[in-house]
Amino acid sequence: xxxxxxxxxxxxxxxxxxxxxxxxxxxxxxxxxxxxxxxxxxxxxxxxxxxxxxxxxxxxxxxxxxxxxxxxxxxxxxxxxxxxxxxxxxxxxxxxxxxxxxxxxxxxxxxxxxxxxxxxxxxxxxxxxxxxxxxxxxxxxxxxxxxxxxxxxxxxxxxxxxxxxxxxxxxxxxxxxxxxxxxxxxxxxxxxxxxxxxxxxxxxxxxxxxxxxxxxxxxxxxxxxxxxxxxxxxxxxxxxxxxxxxxxxxxxxxxxxxxxxxxxxxxxxxxxxxxxxxxxxxxxxxxxxxxxxxxxxxxxxxxxxxxxxxxxxxxxxxxxxxxxxxxxxx
Length: 330
Ligand SMILES: *Cc1c(COP(=O)(O)O)cnc(C)c1O
Fold this sequence. Notes:
Elements: E1 4-5, H1 16-23, H2 36-49, E2 53-57, H3 60-69, E3 76-81, H4 85-88, H5 93-96, E4 101-105, H6 115-121, E5 131-138, H7 148-160, E6 164-169, H8 172-179, H9 183-187, E7 192-196, E8 207-211, H10 213-225, H11 234-246, H12 251-267, E9 271-276, E10 279-283, H13 288-294, E11 297-298, E12 304-308, H14 315-326
Parallel strand pairs: 1-11, 3-4, 3-5, 5-6, 6-7
Antiparallel strand pairs: 2-8, 7-8, 9-10, 10-12
The chain binds pyridoxal-5'-phosphate (PLP).
The site of pyridoxal-5'-phosphate (PLP) has 12 residues, from helix 3.
C-alpha cells in the first residue's frame, strides 16, 4: 500500500532529477566562500527576490534566529504574532540565544496583527523599557496568505516608527503562486526575508536569508556561532537550485488538491475550518486519524487536524483520501 503522507510538506523525497543535480554539483569549502554552487544559489535568489545579498542556512529556524540577531542587539525587542513560527515553534530561540525580548501580539483570524496594537506595543525611549527594534511577519501563516493591504500598511507603520521589518517567508512561494504575483513583489519593502527550500519546494534542506550586504555579513557571523558554517554544501544548494527551477509553478497543483480535498470533506459532513494554499484544517472526530492510518493515510494526531498537500501527493492520492474519509462512521 502506498502511504499518503499529509503530515507536512517537509516529508517530500528528492526526485530523480534533483538527486542527479546533487550528485553532479561542483563543490568547495563554503566556510572559505569556495563553494561555487552555494554562491550561484545565493546570487540567483538575491536577484530573483530583489535583494543585495543572500545567505544559505541548513534550516529555517537557524535562518530566522540569525536574521533576528542581525537586526537586534542584546536587550532589544521584536514585535511578533502569537502564532508566528519564530515565537512559538522555535523554542523561544530569539530570547534564549539572542537575548532579544519578544513582544507577542494576537494574530487575527486571517493571520494579520491589529495595526493599532502594533503601534501601542512600540516602547518609548526610556530606560524602563526594552528598545523596540523590529517587527516580524510571516507569510504564509498556517497556510493563510497575508492580504496585500495589510502588508503595505504594516510596512508603512514600521517605516514611520523606524522599526526594521523581517518576513518569515518559509512558504512565501505558496503565497506568490496563490496571488499570481512574482516573488519579488511579496518581498518588496521588507528589510530581510527568510525563504525555505525544504517545504513545498521539495529540497531535502536549505533556507535562504535575504537582505542588504552589511546585514548579510552580520548574519554570516551569527550563522557561524550557531553552528551553521558548513563545508561542501553545494550538494544541497544544487537541490535548492533544482527546486527553484522545477517546483515553483507546480505549487498551484498542491493548492488545487487542497481546495478539492476541503470541498469533498465538507460535502461528506466534516467540519472543515479552512483551506488555503496547501493546507486544510478540520475538526477531527475521535478515531478519524486511526481510521485514515489503516487506509494508508498518515496525518498528525490532534483535534484540529492539519492536512498538507505537496510534491509527493498526486491528484489520485487525494481521491483515495476522500474515499477513505467518506467511509468513516462516528
Ligand atoms: C518550517 C518553518 C520554519 C523553520 O524551518 P525549519 O527548517 O523546520 O527549521 C520557519 N518558519 C515557518 C513559517 C515554517 O513553516
